[in-house]
Amino acid sequence: MATVDLKDIKKSFGKVDVIHGVDMEIADGEFIVIVGPSGCGKSTLLRMVAGLETITSGELLIGGKRANDTEPMDRDIAMVFQNYALYPHMTVADNMAYGLKIAGMPKDQIKAKVQEAAKLLQLDHLLDRKPRELSGGQRQRVAMGRAIVREPSVFLFDEPLSNLDAKLRVQMRLEIKDLQAKLGITSLYVTHDQVEAMTMADRMIVMNGGVAEQIGTPLDVYERPQTIFAAQFIGSPSMNLMDGRIDGGQLKVNDVSLGPVDTREGDVTVGLRPEHVFADSAGVLRLNVHQSEPLGANTLLHGTLEGKAFTASLPGVHRMPGNDRDMSLNFASENLHLFDPKTGKRI
Amino acid sequence: MEKRVTFKGWLLPVALIAPQALISLIFFFYPAAQAVWQSLFIPDPFGLSSQFVGLGNFEFLLKDPYYRSSFVTTAIFSTLVTLAAMIPALFLAVVADRLIKGAGAYRTMLIWPYAVAPAVAGVLWLFMFNPRVGVVAWYLGQLGYDWNHVLNDGEAMGLVVAASAWGRISYNFLFFFAGLQAIPKSLIEAAAIDGARFWKRFFTIVLPLLSPTTFFLLVVNVVYAFFETFGVIHTITSGGPQQATTILVYKVFSDGFVGQDLGSSSAQSVILLVVVGLLTIIQFKFVEKKVHY
Asked: Which residues belong to any copy of the ABC transporter domain (chain A) (predicted)?
């Protein structure tokens, strides 16, 4: 068990800068999710912690000790790969025992450890199988088992659930979270799935274009997104954006007044989550609905509002509105998010 | 899903198979049948008549000490050629696989020797090691080593092995390199995180995963050493000195076309056919069991 500190970590491949400096202190036993779209550098960041990529500049501390130039095997970490990376010519038991054998642990101890991990992951009946004889979920568990038996200080997960089907993904998500809580091992978990990030993380790093847009608890990011990117990436369907102006203390989108605000005057980007609007005949927002998606528990209404695409998520079943397809919506002013359109930062 | 084509008549399929079937019949089955037939006769010295001797040729061969020593020579030669062609190839492939820049150039250069015909390769090596005018022989002489493969049978064997294996390294390299590239990077990374250093990873992960390639090359290289090295031996040593490099294939040639003993030569081809068949069966039966696909 250990803390992990990232101090202005940067990475360049030749002249291309991939990661522009990430700062973070990870407490012992914390579950950190690194989330972002593909190509944002999240895997690269994880691989630098693992020691599979060199760190161009900055400092990485694992357990308080500088680890920049330490070999992967000496960092006391374990990693679960996206494609599981199980050794195809070894049985499940041998896969899990491989690291222990190399560490020179006595055979009976190895056997006990593997048994213990297998029991924890409900793999006991599969120990003699080869990876190709296992289902996706079982392979995933073996990869977990291989990480667990070594009792590392830090777990690293590189999109471990992305090869599983939706149902299994939900189940494994809970299992991984449970297991991590039980073992109390500091974990870094990379995913592009914001639902995984929201449900699993103690804290998350929202990455975009090699920059950590926001670091915070899931609710923190959801309730107070610090940038337009973080606001749109977290939450599903993603946050609606409107071009607005603050004029004489009044927030306006085109001619529609959204109420008084006390910040700087001028152009702003207004964010409003689909689930934060409600049908109200007295509402100021007029949504022209093009399409509705009934999901059962709620209904998604897609359309345009003041000339821009807008999605509303209303509880229960809603039919398409009448002839002109217009619908009046209202919102609570504390659910409005204001961003600077130039910097993309929260105001 | 497998796609099957069903022909309505029999004319078209027969016509399609015919060219290959004819080639096999004329150049393989007919001579093979001839060899089996002729192995039962002894022709007279002038080739005008021949006398049926049953299995006499075989009986004579198996008692002949020269023939038996040719078996040993072949075993040594093919083992050495296979090892000398595969181990350096594997080493080069592992090294080239670690390269990030310039791997393409290395690969191309390493493939070139394969384009050299065995007989030409033989002549190249012969010139380099010629006891009187060869470059390498001269340098060895400077170092105080008196190289003469014409008289020394160990040196003769070493030279034909080197000349035979040399061009073959390229071929093996290509397969090993492709095999290495097919191993997922994440497996190697997982092993590195598990604490395995380079050579440990090589022996516990890479080599087992490469075993289908290795097995294939083993079969192909043994067959090569048995049959296709004739040109090298013919140009460098002609089987000498004192039959030290006369492998079975070379003996078929020298007994049949130099010694004019067609009966014995045919009998030797038949034996060779059986030996290679057995070798292949053994390899598939026993080695394949240890191969992880």
From this structure: 4-234
